[in-house]
Design goal:
Length: 98
């Protein structure tokens, strides 16, 4: 393995480990945070609480009303077992003899 690939691999591994640790740290901070005093008041300023109780913004899209229209039923034709392709007997190999 080349030294360049080893450095890139080590960097990406260290970066991914750092990201996982930051996510775990944020989860522990959200779970373990407490408020003193007026924590029962809905007007207290806490960025962790505001993030925990906020929802993702959603967009509404226009959904057209389905239109039902009569259409003709397409019938399947029967399959033919006879092939119209030319098959030369010169290119067919016989089965091997035992």
């Amino acid at each position: 393995m080349s030294p360049h690939k080893t450095r890139v691999s080590a960097r990406s591994g260290a970066l991914s480990l750092l990201c996982v640790l930051l996510v775990l740290l944020a989860a522990v901070a959200q779970v373990n945070h407490v408020h003193t005093g007026k924590s029962n008041s809905p007007n207290h300023e806490c960025s962790v609480c505001s993030v925990a109780h906020s929802t993702a913004l959603t967009r509404t899209t226009h959904q057209p009303v389905p239109v039902f229209v009569r259409s003709a039923l397409a019938l399947r034709q029967k399959a033919f077992s006879m092939s119209f392709l030319f098959v030369s007997p010169l290119y067919i190999r016989p089965p091997p003899s035992v």
